[in-house]
Amino acid sequence: MNLETLSVSKEGAVLTVEIAAPPMNLLGPELVRDLVSLIKEAEPDEAVKVIVFKSADPDYFIPHVDVTRIKEYRQEAAKLVGEASLALLFRHLSASRLITIAQIEGRVRAAGSEFVLACDMRFAALESAIFGQFEPAFGQLPGGGAAQHLTRLMGRGRALEVMLCAQDYSAELAERYGWINRALPTAILGDFVRSLAHRIAGFPATGHTAVKNRVNAIALAPVEDFRRDSDTFGEAIRGSQAQGRIRDAMSHGFQTREGEMTLARMLGDLDGPSTRF
Amino acid sequence: MNLETLSVSKEGAVLTVEIAAPPMNLLGPELVRDLVSLIKEAEPDEAVKVIVFKSADPDYFIPHVDVTRIKEYRQEAAKLVGEASLALLFRHLSASRLITIAQIEGRVRAAGSEFVLACDMRFAALESAIFGQFEPAFGQLPGGGAAQHLTRLMGRGRALEVMLCAQDYSAELAERYGWINRALPTAILGDFVRSLAHRIAGFPATGHTAVKNRVNAIALAPVEDFRRDSDTFGEAIRGSQAQGRIRDAMSHGFQTREGEMTLARMLGDLDGPSTRF
Amino acid sequence: MNLETLSVSKEGAVLTVEIAAPPMNLLGPELVRDLVSLIKEAEPDEAVKVIVFKSADPDYFIPHVDVTRIKEYRQEAAKLVGEASLALLFRHLSASRLITIAQIEGRVRAAGSEFVLACDMRFAALESAIFGQFEPAFGQLPGGGAAQHLTRLMGRGRALEVMLCAQDYSAELAERYGWINRALPTAILGDFVRSLAHRIAGFPATGHTAVKNRVNAIALAPVEDFRRDSDTFGEAIRGSQAQGRIRDAMSHGFQTREGEMTLARMLGDLDGPSTRF
């Protein structure tokens, strides 16, 4: 595979995919294009059973989409799913016969969180992983499936909290809320995920498919619901309110490595210190 | 607002509502009437985005309904929702555009628990909050939505346990079971909730509405289910079995401040020490 | 009751049922026959309200079905539910008016886990209880309801993990994932369950029925879904892939007390050390 933003290694039936899209792994057209290529190649290849996703950047797994290139990355998604929607690309991954595991260090916010939610399992570094759905700080519904997944994983009260307050959540709290499978010390995370991936890959594919089909029938929302969230996001993000807030955030460091180290605080201060408590 | 049992203060777009219905914050006609007035006034007022509910009584948030005045408080609820049902009043609150946060100290049992379950988020004092659904001790299904919410929040096994055993649950266990968002030390609870409320209120209302609509579409039971639970409760509570057990409980301190400090134990002893293990 | 594999004692309205099917409590025709007899006798007897299930074997609660006698035990199940399906027998128990509590010490894997999932509540010994759904190690979907229950109890990500990796889970982790109500120290487990059972039994049966009906309407999957899982399992287990892996496992100690003490490790090694990481 000739990929610009993903570096892929294969060991047995396990692909390990490292996301490397400097400076901060924003989800833009290049990364989406490469994800599409990866899925298109791996899905029909029966020698591949499990994919582990991790990041080459210790501070950022995927921080969110590139808000300046929404139309472009959506068109890349369409090349796999036939519709210009990241949500449908993510749902495709959830419904795939491939077993996907996210090994999370650094920040996964907004569509980054939605990407790991689309994976079949999520394990995160206790010391460094940070989770957030900050779209409501821009007056937006998360468009890539967070509402679908988080509500089912953590229930109404916690899902409302997470999506309304646009705060950062530690790996420990993310585990307690059900956002991820488990938070593990960084020192053992890699070995744990590698061992799990190879263990699963050692079992027959018929079991994988049967289990995924049955679990998805119960817990994966229908395509229409992902499409509706995606459309709602796509329309609102073009509005003057969202664009105004994004410009304001940009002027405070949004979409920069430095500025997003403490993004949750910055978003809380957008309207000035009068709203800070 | 001219309210007898609620004291309301406004700071920015956040209303803080303190429940003060001595001697123990029973949910009777006065408190329901005031809740209806509050909602009627706040809902169309775009200057209000978030409501925080707390209690003026450190031992009781809301212990349960006044079982001697069921018909009266139901009629107050009808003034907002058109039907004499507390469950439908609570569901109205869940479906409202207003963001509601319960800051819980003291006892929330039966309809008190159902009130906080109807709020969008629940944070409770580690040291003092106590949770219970004791209706089955009177042979009753909880009528205000507990079955709908608890089953979805904590799953079949824990919901059955909680509703069948009529026990008291600490804030720590309530958090572990998903009954509440989080249990926090009393010393920081107030600041945490105030900060959260103002943070959310600082974000655009369009995001609030989009998130609540989507989460409710997934996790808030339909009106019919609340109505059915409400009707089941309303019919059974008038029966001779329930009335007999209520009279018995009354003679042991039910609906008194003192008697309900250890209500769970008292309910377990209603049929005499032979059933105590 | 004249039962070979269950020893039953009655105290008030609580039956305590100890599973004793040496050498390791495999779920075979005798145990299923006795479960059917127990349910047939207890269900119409209004003097019985609660059943506690525990094991006479400290290492094994129920390890799984006897894979050499599937047709036979299914025929025993049919004597209660009219169809040769363990899943439908388990679902019958979940839908029963009887309140069932599993007090778990030792191993509950595969159909053993599914049996306790069918109970209304599950409490497990912190020190000794071990949980697993290892069917996918044989290329199989769990056929007795695990997919239905686990997906609803722990959400998509954790349910996929548990069912795809065929690992052992401690009581502590099982509690964290929502597989069980609570993990408790062995020293207090028995008293806790006994007290809970008698407390519930002391409350009116009308409340039990109302609560179970309402919770089941929300959280217990329909008969068709259990039947489909059961059929999927029944067909695949006869296939050459499953039979080959079962023979292989048998040669490594599967279905023996000794061999299953560390079953999860053995299943990971079935295809040789090359797949071990």
Topology:
Three copies of one chain form a homotrimer.
Chain A: E1 6-11, E2 14-19, H1 29-42, E3 50-55, E4 60-62, H2 70-81, H3 86-95, E5 99-104, E6 107-109, H4 111-118, E7 121-125, E8 130-132, H5 146-165, E9 169-170, H6 171-177, E10 182-184, H7 186-201, H8 205-219, H9 223-237, H10 240-251, H11 263-268
Parallel strand pairs in A: 2-3, 3-5, 4-6, 5-7, 6-8, 7-10
Antiparallel strand pairs in A: 1-2, 8-9
Helix pairs in contact in A: 1-2, 2-3, 3-9
Q: How is this structure best summarized?
A:
3 copies of one chain form a homotrimer. The first copy, chain A, has helices at 29-42, 70-81, 86-95, 111-118, 146-165, 171-177, 186-201, 205-219, 223-237, 240-251, 263-268, and strands at 6-11, 14-19, 50-55, 60-62, 99-104, 107-109, 121-125, 130-132, 169-170, 182-184.
Provide the descriptors you would attach to this structure in a database record.
homotrimer, 277 residues, alpha/beta, six-stranded mixed beta sheet, four-stranded mixed beta sheet, globular, disordered C terminus
- Largest interface by residue count? A-B, 37 and 37 residues
**Total beta-strand segments of chain A:** 10
Terminal-residue CA separation of chain A: 50 Å
Binned strand content of chain A = 15-25%
Rg measurement of chain A, Å: 18 Å
Order of strands across the main sheet of chain A: 1-2-3-5-7-10
Put simply, the count of helices of chain A is 11
Low-pLDDT runs of chain A: 273-277
Helicity level of chain A = 40-55%
